[in-house]
Amino acid sequence: MSHGTISQRTMESLGVPNIDGGGHYIRTIEWDMMNKYKFFPLSMLSSFSVRCMLYPFTVIKTRIQIQRHSEIYKGTFDAFQKIFKYEGFGGLYKGFWVSAFQLVSGIFYITTYENVRQFLQQRGVQDSRIRALIGGGCASLVGQTIIVPFDVISQHMMVLGQLEGRGKSKAVVNPLNIDYQGQRKPQIALDIVRTLYKKDGLRGFYRGYMASISAYVPNSALWWSFYHFYQEQLARISPEGTSTLLLQCIAAPLGGVTTVLLTNPLDIVQRTGGFGHTFRILWSEEQLGVFTKGLSPRLFQSVIFSFTIILGYESVKRFSVNDEYKKEVKW
């Protein structure tokens, strides 16, 4: 592709003026600008690293959201201390290896997202926020269809053995009545799979699927849309020569916070089961607290996750960009 073609494309939707004079530089690296043989392995490595670092927050968030009121954990740090004290370091990584299968769905997710954005651009949709909104929603639909069974198993492992209630009513969480004492994690996971299948068949692995779609599709769509929105706003007010990657790493947490504030009740319903009935139960128990239940750990997780995933993702895209575009890409 000629230099003139690159510049024209950049001017249309991707770039901002280059302060060195001499054309434009690319702010958003598109799907067809990358070497996929570099992109896929680097992307998986980046995602796995982020997942290793942030998984304890997922466990904490899940446990806080499924508890009644605040009878066990008073907040993020209280949950961290209690899990670490009573279950050890491994308690913060319950269900991790099952959850790690999300790396597979992650590849389908990002491939869908990037290709939908490219498809829309080719059809004349130039607004990056609209393309991100639709792309993020489609990506989440594909990703959730693949990952929900693994997520169901992972969540069972996260809460297995957790104490619930107070005094004489205190009980150990074990909804499937699995003999997990002294068992290794792979064996526990296999027991969960067998019990779920025996109890509900394949449908048991997609329990809460519609609630999951209702929570994650709008969450993903809004996150990507806000990410591009904040990125554009920051680019307008930032001094010339400001690092594009820096702006992206600031835009991502801002988009994450905005999305969390808008979608928190949907996430709670997704974690606890069916939509309508579950929301009514939560409302009767929590009232307006349903809008803030688990909000603190989710905000904390979202800020860190948004920052780290975009730092990794945008860096991987820069490392994977084809040689013909390298001079057009600004860090």
Automatic annotation (TrEMBL):
InterPro entries: MCP_dom_sf (IPR023395), MCP_transmembrane (IPR018108), SLC25A44 (IPR042164)
Superkingdom, natural source: Eukaryota
Compartments where found: Membrane
A cellular component annotation (GO) from this entry: mitochondrion
Residue intervals passing through the bilayer: 91-110, 130-150, 204-225
Keyword Electron transport in record: no
Solcar repeat extents: 34-119, 127-233, 243-319
Keyword set, alphabetical order: Membrane, Transmembrane, Transmembrane helix, Transport
Gene3D superfamilies per record: Mitochondrial carrier domain
Keyword Membrane: yes
Membrane topology designation: Multi-pass membrane protein
Family that this chain belongs to: Belongs to the mitochondrial carrier (TC 2.A.29) family.
UniProt name for this protein: Solute carrier family 25 member 44-like
Biological source species: Homarus americanus
